[in-house]
Amino acid sequence: SASFDDFSPRFVVRYDLADNTNIYATVSKGYKAGGVDINSGQVLEFDPETLWNYEIGLKGSAAGGSVFYSLSAFYLDWKDLQVQTNFLLDPTDISSAVERTLNAASASSMGFEAELQAQLSDAFGIQLAVGYLDAEFDDFLDAVLAGGNAVDLSDMRLPKTPKFTFSGAVDYTVPLTDDMDFYSRAEVNSRSSAPGDLEGVAAGPLNLPSFPYNPDGYTVVNLRAGVEMNSLEIAAWIENLFGEDYYTGTQDNFGLGGIRIRPHPTIWGASVKYKF
Q1: Distance between CA atoms of 199 and 156, rounded to whole angstroms?
Q2: Coil, helix or strand for 73?
């Protein structure tokens, strides 16, 4: 048995530069309780995880409220970051599978995000967002991976943390009759490559291939259009319009399961909704 307690404060300071613009600064603490893993006849404890988040930013609107924008920069500082790992105690015996929660002594992440939303006219609106992220294990000397081997992952990138992200969308809405509107939306989402899991982070030290542990970056285009009339809506949509071959993560599985990836094929669909 174990018990955990924590005090997690949050402090925010905001200053209005103008009626529609403000700057702010935030300091907050995050917390995740510890616990135990029970497997292979062992009871292994793991420590609580704590996080301090520091953020400064700017938010505002212009053009009579038709334009909204925000810009923020942040720094996150983890202690005892909880990381999930699984491995075979005996690499030749699939029945020796072990899942564990490890504590990385420290990790950090810093970056910025910028967003813009604008209603260009009664018919057209746009949304844009861009992000930059630099996230790594600062001190993780004993990450336990394949075969139960300990690997030093200090100064290596955190899993699932692409350095660059971008998204954009254009909306078009126009009335067809007094009680019928046509709407459409085109969107693009893009991100750079990032390790899919701990094996991806440790691909170099473990002499693992890049595929499938480190998914490549990708850019995906989605479309949606439809009509709305009173209580009825008819819509059609396409995800991954240009058939981008990509996957967004990996998952270790033991035995014949091997390594699973999550592909995203082109998907077409339509829907009819009626509100009573």
Answers
A1: 12
A2: strand
The whole-number average pLDDT for the span 33-41 is 84
Per the CB < 8 A criterion, the answer to whether 148 and 87 are in contact is yes
3-state class of 255 per DSSP? helix
DSSP assignment of 195-209, as one string?
A: -SSHHHHTTTTTT--
Q: Which amino acid is at 10?
A: R
Q: Tell me what percent of the residues of the chain surpass a pLDDT of 70.
A: 96
CA atoms of 144 and 150, how far apart (whole Å): 4
Structure tokens at 91: 């690499």
Cβ contact 75:109 at 8 Å: yes
Chain segment 164-178, per-residue pLDDT in tens: 999 999 999 999 999
Per-residue pLDDT of 77-90, as tens digits, reads 999 999 988 777 77
Residue pointed to by tokens 């009579």 = 64
Q: What is residue 257's predicted lDDT score, i.e. its pLDDT?
A: 55
The Cα 19–Cα 131 span in angstroms is 27
Predicted structure pTM score: 0.86
Cα separation values, 4 from 7, 33, 46, 146, 259, Å = 11, 6, 12, 31, 35
Residue of 172, 163, 159 lying closest to 83 (CA atoms) = 159
Band (pLDDT 50/70/90 cuts) for residue 263 is confident
Instruction: Identify the CA nearest to 26 among candidates 42, 37, 39, 10.
Output: 10
Both tokens of 157, joined, read 């990138």
Structure tokens that stand for 258 in this block: 């091997």
